[in-house]
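Exercise 4. Each item below gives a protein and its sequence. For each, produce the structure-token representation.

Item: Ubiquinone/menaquinone biosynthesis C-methylase UbiE (Streptomyces albogriseolus).
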Amino acid sequence: MTLLRDEHLAAAFDHAARSYDTLVAANPGYHAHLRRSARRLGLPRGGEGLRVLDLGCGTGASTAALAEVLPSADITAVDASAGMLERAAAKTWPPNVTFTHAPAERLAEAGVTGPFDAVFAAYLFRNVTDPDAVLRTVHGLLAPGGRLAVHEYTLGGRRTDRAVWSLVCRGVVQPVATLLGDGDLYRHLWRSVVEFDTADRFADRLRTNGFDSVRRLPLPGWQTGITHTFTGRRPTTTETAR
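Answer:
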């Protein structure tokens, strides 16, 4: 199959929204890993006085991680899938969390404007048609010195990383998803990871698009070598990205 993109991918997520939380709940460490990545933003005082963008929030798992780690931040959560966003917005949230329906490529049209003190993006960049364009948009939305954390399936480059990923997808995820009528989306999930950047390549992509202080950080458990947190920063006006 070819990779799903743009409106086709959004439609697939719309259909999968009803069962998405059930599937991710079966993934050991899923929510704890998101909280770990949110902490890796390194924002002070629980986010007091800060604006944070949750880009590609899905049904709100990443939003919940941010709200727990940064309870005092003003969190704007955005997703391209109306179905996923509806599920997210229906949950109970504090007043400092708001939701907006918009693709990552058209944030300004939906009224999502900076500056933000931090951007968090979970499982987003391998799903967009032009990740460099989205990274440039994120860079422009951040205040000088603002921070980015990307939580993403990015294989470490070892053959065992790809083998474990393929075994989990083909042996567990895809059969269950097919029974639920979402086989195409989860076949896309497998392929989108194996065809996306390795972890080193994605770190280089951040640097190429103007971020400095870039770090590639592993996550524990079965996802070691499969899922990483990437952190970076928009340089201040007196600095040059390095």
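Check: The first helix runs from residue 6 to 25.
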